[in-house]
Fold this protein.
Amino acid sequence: MTRATEIHLVRRPRGEPVDDDFRAVQVELDDPGPGQVLVRNVVMSVDPYMRVRMAAVLPGYPSWDLDAPMDGSAVGVVLASAAEAFPVGTVVSHRYGWRDHALVPAGGLRRIVPDPSIPLTAHLDVLGMTGLTAFVGLRDVARIRPGEDVWISGAAGAVGAAAGQIARLLGAGRIVGSAGSAAKVRQLVDELGYDAGFDYHVPDLPAALAAAAPTGIDVYFDNVGDDHLEAALGSIRAHGRIVVCGAINQYNALGERPGPRNLIAILTQRLRVEGFTVREHLAAYDGFVAQASDWLRQGSLVSTVTVVDGLDRAVHAFREMLRGANRGKMIVRISDDPAPTGSAG
Amino acid sequence: MTRATEIHLVRRPRGEPVDDDFRAVQVELDDPGPGQVLVRNVVMSVDPYMRVRMAAVLPGYPSWDLDAPMDGSAVGVVLASAAEAFPVGTVVSHRYGWRDHALVPAGGLRRIVPDPSIPLTAHLDVLGMTGLTAFVGLRDVARIRPGEDVWISGAAGAVGAAAGQIARLLGAGRIVGSAGSAAKVRQLVDELGYDAGFDYHVPDLPAALAAAAPTGIDVYFDNVGDDHLEAALGSIRAHGRIVVCGAINQYNALGERPGPRNLIAILTQRLRVEGFTVREHLAAYDGFVAQASDWLRQGSLVSTVTVVDGLDRAVHAFREMLRGANRGKMIVRISDDPAPTGSAG
């Protein structure tokens, strides 16, 4: 038996989530049954899509149960094992976040080969679902072609930070990002390889976009929705693609905010607007991790994270992420890294 | 020299077009120069997209010049020819509508082989761009699969009347149409092969759609935009496709009406929303005409037209079409059919 702490959703948030929507719950975990392992979680991520999963049933999107642990990406170390492929000490990634310990079936585990040049948090960021999201969004959904000009909103967020760099690695033309502060915008250009950036807190978003991308865009990678989508529709060229990856402006106000006034551009410019979820692109993961690990070691891809310490501050971290306080991936550190003994092979 | 009457656009309409936005202008046409023919127009069409071409520059959409003849599909007969392939008497279709006579270069002509079982107006309707629009929208843009359920808005309009029938011929499952009157809705079901229909003049459009398509839809063929698009987003299944063919609700109010409040469905349901114009699918035309002519002769496809007599009533016909007074294709008859001599063979 192992005592564990889980964060449960106890009430569906109305608008911005508040502390009382969640509760830390102590549970006793059994020893691992056949095919299971007990994992001590080291780091977990908090992500915008989680706000949607907190909502009541939204067609096509799995909703979290109340009074049950939430889930999400985490990296941990195997403490006890009844699964041959994952001996004690193995470093693993899995979906049993929002708790300090978890019983995980072997089928839900992915082995991480320790590499001193790659921090564990990168496996939640550019080497994890974040990186894969940016990659398949650009390569498989947008089907970006060399030289095409791209605007990425939420560019200083986790997916945005990865997407700007990956757009460059895929041969994009001008890469423009928008973010929520002047400091973030500087980071886009100075550290993340964006050609230009702008703060979306401007009276005239279309004008800011036009200044950053004077000849228009071919691809809009949307993490925001709303007024950002309207600006993109005003700036996009014929046969442009709009990849709908997120809609953070919508998450706290589902169904209440009107859409863009210029959707007719979809018709007049013969656009393709396509939503996707990384969950349906997992077949691309192995190839992506190999490629992205090389990029990371070569320094052509960097992982940007903001770390909050303590599972008891995970809800705080989630709320801070929703209001844009993070740079890159918002990570919660739950316990210490495993000792680099190499015993996990 | 031939005296001709052309309808010119003389002012960009604000909201609903009015008579003073247009003018009938008398011109003298030269005799055909090398490679040209003089055509007497017999019938022409008025179409929703023309309202967009009357607007000032809309990115990606060619705008009509002021004080120049408008254009559009027409069928006529060659009166004088300096183009070997199109001798006098040949029946032709072309883009020089909105006038009773036109000088047309041979490259802009398409020969129509007279067939007593097919009225000339069908070449502007199911055998023309209207039919091709419905066909490529369903086959190439939606990529409809056998058994998939479809909603077609503006279903009693020209494209809608063709689309319902073509969806059936392509193997669609349940086919639902919406239109602007109870009589039109009856026609959808009684004559055009729709499984169900509803009048969009209801207090609750999503409820009307849900009643007609109780298990949801896979494809929405959008001729309307606006509240119709919002209803579709609420009813569409995962991986659904929304084909944006027209947006008649927007045409008189470009840029003024907010979009749907539930665009987040594009993300949560992983939808593809794609706009297209038939002008970019002309390579499919020959194959389509052959197929559709067979369907027409077999009676599995019918052409539905509303005919207004006289070029001097073309603007009236256009305005009536915009407010939905037509059933099927709105046609303006300009002159008598050519005598069926067969001399044009």
Notes: Residues 2-125+304-333 of chain A form a domain with the Quinone Oxidoreductase; Chain A, domain 1 fold (CATH 3.90.180.10).
